[in-house]
Amino acid sequence: MATTVHEPPKIEGQRDPSQSHGGFNSGGQDLVPGNLPAVRRYSPPPASTGIWVVLASITMTFAAFTSALIVRQGSALDWRHLTLPNILYVNTLVLFASSFALEMTRRRIRVVAGGLKADSVDASRWLYAALTLGLLFVVGQYIAWAQLRAQGLYLATNPNSSFFYVLTAVHALHVLGGLGGLLRVIRKMGNSTLRKSTLDATAYYWHFMDALWVYLLVLLWMKL
Amino acid sequence: MHDTAHAHAGQHAAPTSFIRKHVFSLDHKVIGKQYYGLALAAVLIGMFLSWLMRLHLGWTNLAIPGLHLLTKNGAPGDVMTPEFYLQLMTMHATIMVFFVLTTAPFAAFGNYFLPIQVGAEDMPFPHFNMMSFWVTFVAFLVLMSSFFVSDGPTLGGWTQYAPLSAVGQVGGPGEGAGVVLWALSIAIFCVGQLLGSLNFITTTLDMRTRGMSLWRLPLSAWGWFITSVMGLTAFAVLMPACILLILDHVAGTSFFVPANTVMNDQMQPHSGGSTLLWQHLFWFFGHPEVYIAIVPGMGIVSHVLVTNMRKPMLSHRVLVYAMGALAVLSYMVYGHHMFVSGMNPVSSLVFSFPTLVITIPSTIVVLIWMGSLYGAKLRINSASLFALGFISMFIAGGVSGFFLAQPSIDIMLHATYFVVGHFHLVMGVAAMFGIFAGTYFWFPKMYGRMMNETLGKIHFWCSFVGAYAIFMPFHYLGLAGNVRRYQAFAPEYMQPLIPLHKFITIAALFTGAAQLVFVYNLFVSRYKGEPASDNPWQATSLEWSTPTTPPPHNNFGDTLPVVYHDPFQYGVESSTGDYVMQTSPEKASAHDES
Description:
The structure holds two protein chains of two kinds.
Chain A: E1 4-5, H1 36-40, H2 46-75, H3 87-107, E2 109-112, E3 115-118, H4 121-150, H5 159-190, H6 196-223
Antiparallel strand pairs in A: 2-3
Helix pairs in contact in A: 2-5, 2-6, 3-4, 3-6, 4-5, 5-6
Chain B: H1 18-23, H2 28-58, H3 82-118, H4 126-145, H5 177-206, H6 219-250, E1 262-263, E2 266-267, H7 275-309, H8 316-329, H9 345-357, H10 359-373, H11 382-404, H12 407-413, H13 417-447, H14 453-479, H15 498-528, E3 559-560, E4 569-574, E5 577-580
Antiparallel strand pairs in B: 1-2, 4-5
Helix pairs in contact in B: 2-3, 2-4, 2-15, 3-5, 3-6, 3-7, 3-13, 4-5, 5-6, 6-7, 6-8, 7-11, 7-13, 8-10, 10-11, 11-13, 11-14, 13-14, 14-15
């Protein structure tokens, strides 16, 4: 059921609600009373704000892990060098490729009434490619853990291996969350209920996973 | 271009099944009530635990009938062991800080009223909102489950300092499974609060109705918004800390346990961990948590006061800026909890300075309240009395903060009852008074009935006098050298302090009993209270403009309100009396800054 907005009564000397100072809802002379979508057009969609809130929260989490790593490194003499498995560099390329595929998807879908729709089968293919590559990244990370285990480096072997496993595992969990987001996009695109803001938010999250991974890789390469 | 499909963000059909309506509800109002119910259950448990502790402190060898039911080994002959005392203390603090002071003023009232005050139908992500509550509920169950593991809950205090918290069973009763359950509970709690913060921030920024600029938000909404930003950053740091603590227990890692640590004559199989690392991570969350507990109370109290003063605050904007400054500074002061940790004295000064600076916005807030109250014809009711009580407690508890902010004095007072008195007044009791003020004020809107005023005033005076009777002597005890977390006072210099402890215990029992008056009032008024009108306080903000009381499922029926004014247009001449509602197009007064 569509919701409508009160039409303000015309009273001499009344306040104009659009004359408030600041805020997203302050302006807009062409607001049409009674037309909620028009009223809300001037506010950013919640998903587009929400995604930045989510990314800020994830940033704080990894900032905490980073500070823990730096403090722990300086607190004792048991810090040992750890050679990163080479597959991590391949995984990096796979994750980048996944982001590229998602961008190709975004370029191939168009706005239709009520939601977004794939312009062609190409868009769906690129989206599935993004999903598959993301999944491949997680598998690649698992192989990296297996390689470390084969060298006798477990979670508790030394502080370096502890941080390696913790940081990569927490990142992988976030990537799995992103894969869930991609599945949601696929489902919504299939029934034409996908919103542009949802797709954008998913894409920002996915690209952020790339940036976060590069940051972690550099951190691990420098510190471990 | 923004798409328009988000216009219905947060909108969902009214539920029809019992489960969807009352259990797994998407409605922010139901979720707010669920949070309030959880906080009420938690506060009663927390208060009961404090009674047990106080009885033990007053009469150390007292047998408390039935105490053995709470613990396997902690109460032989119903007399509390020292370890069980510490377990109760840890659980009391954890329950109160996380599940009462964070959930009630922020998550409960914020969930119920923030969307209505901004003029929205709901929060933008109702499923996340529902998850937020249920995740928090699971966290509470996980915490309480530690009472049922073999050696009971953790005894490490709510700060869980390492290495004690990280060595496992050898650290004492509850330091094995108890700590793991504690850390797991808090990590889950963090997830719940992060989901809540996401909704609060997006609701405030994106869901405001036509005409509702940020400066037209009521002060309570500002309090919740600022708190949600703090929660987003603070809980995102505590969660990794808890993960690392759990790994030290279950995976044998060495994040927090140094090499060569000997605990109970046993060398610990850890190497090179940092005990200070835990303190840094914990207090980076811990100090903002103080403000997470108190800033919503500031917003609620401001809202209640301005409604009952029938005139605007001296400055709405400065009050908001001051609350924002508190939030920012709260991240820069956490090191003052670590003055005696052996940190570099220069670091102590670096943390001492912002700690003293943070008193400036606190003082500004208090001065605005006091200046606004000056000359006001304050309506005396339960809500306004608790609002005044909040100010009193905030000042009384805040003043001792000046002393503790200075490293040279803090070294003497650290870990004494002086600190316990300080934070109980400024963070605990003040925040509780904020919750009470909010309850008496908004209950009519939440349930459509008034609470009993006489019982409310009895509740206030007993709580006000009782809280001072309990916590002011704590300062004296601290100055006299009474160390906190001691379960008995064997040293000779502490013997003369025991009568004072007995007095405090009696005061605690009395004040606790007075809270039962509140609980009685709450439940009886819910069903038999006098029916409330839509706007019983002649208030102006949007929650008093709903078409029905309690508000309908989508808050405003088929229409969303349009906002014409600042939130607090009181002391004006209008067709309705001395106020103009935010939704009224009637010309207001010179107060209206927008």
